């Protein structure tokens, strides 16, 4: 029920914005002066965490590929999952710098 209310409010607001040049100008100014700078600042602030997450994802992918080379996941799925989960847990305990 509340989501329908918000949907109707958003739809009404979008319709008003589409028809009113003054509202369009105000919205454009707000977006340009407030939203864009905050979004850019947030993106830059999150950069170290994004890079760390990327490095973890790459190293985890390498661990899984290595485990797949060592143990055929189709022939020995339990052993493959066991070795892979162990490598991932070890990586989580001792992350690379």
Task: Describe the fold and architecture.
The chain is mainly alpha-helical and 97 residues long. It folds into two domains: 1-45; 51-97, no CATH class. 87% of the residues lie in helices and 0% in strands. The protein has four helices and no strands. It has helices at residues 2-19, 21-45, 47-70, 77-93. The chain is elongated. The relative contact order is 0.06.
Mind sketching the topology for me?
Elements: H1 2-19, H2 21-45, H3 47-70, H4 77-93
Helix pairs in contact: 1-2, 3-4
Q: How many strands, which pairing sense, and closed or not: the largest β-sheet?
A: none
- Stretches where pLDDT is under 50 for at least 5 consecutive residues are none
Radius of gyration: 25 Å
How many structural domains are formed by the residues?
Answer: 2
Give the distance, in angstroms, between the N- and C-terminal Cα atoms: 49 Å
The general outline is elongated
Helix proportion? over 70%
Order of SSEs: HHHH
Mean pLDDT: 88
The proportion of residues in beta strands is: under 5%
Brief account:
By secondary structure, the protein is mostly helical. Helices cover 87% and strands 0% of the residues. The chain has two domains: 1-45; 51-97, no CATH class.
Q: What distinguishing features does this structure have?
A:
mainly alpha; 2 domains; 4 helices
């Amino acid at each position: 029920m509340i989501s329908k209310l918000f949907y109707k409010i958003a739809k009404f607001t979008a319709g008003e914005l589409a028809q009113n040049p003054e509202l369009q100008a105000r919205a454009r100014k707000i977006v340009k002066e407030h939203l864009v700078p905050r979004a850019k600042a947030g993106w830059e602030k999150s950069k170290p965490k994004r890079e760390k997450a990327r490095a973890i994802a790459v190293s985890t992918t390498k661990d899984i590929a290595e485990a797949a080379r060592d143990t055929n996941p189709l022939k020995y799925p339990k052993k493959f999952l066991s070795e892979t989960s162990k490598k991932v847990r070890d990586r989580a305990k001792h992350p690379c710098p």
